[in-house]
Design a protein that fits this description.
Length: about 80
């Protein structure tokens, strides 16, 4: 079974692959992700208010995806 670090690296590799191959991902920019990021945070907050922890797990996963996407985009632009 792969270790957590390897799983995360695999996840980042998938995001990088999608960035190259998926038309929607290729069109995105750091700025274009802002509304999606905000939406996911609000959905996570709603899940917390509702005490819907299964839904919270989904939203945390969505937020993680956006954090990784933003990081990949920033690395491409050599921001960090």
């Amino acid at each position: 079974m792969p270790k957590t670090g390897q799983k995360f690296e695999d996840f980042v590799s998938i995001v990088k692959k999608l960035r190259k191959e998926c038309p929607w991902d290729r069109e995105q920019t750091i700025a274009s992700l802002k509304p999606y990021l905000v939406e996911e945070v609000y959905e996570a907050l709603q899940a917390i208010d509702d005490r819907d922890y299964a839904k919270l797990g989904e939203e945390v996963g969505d937020m993680l995806l956006h954090v990784v996407m933003l990081s990949v985009f920033a690395a491409e632009d050599k921001y960090f």
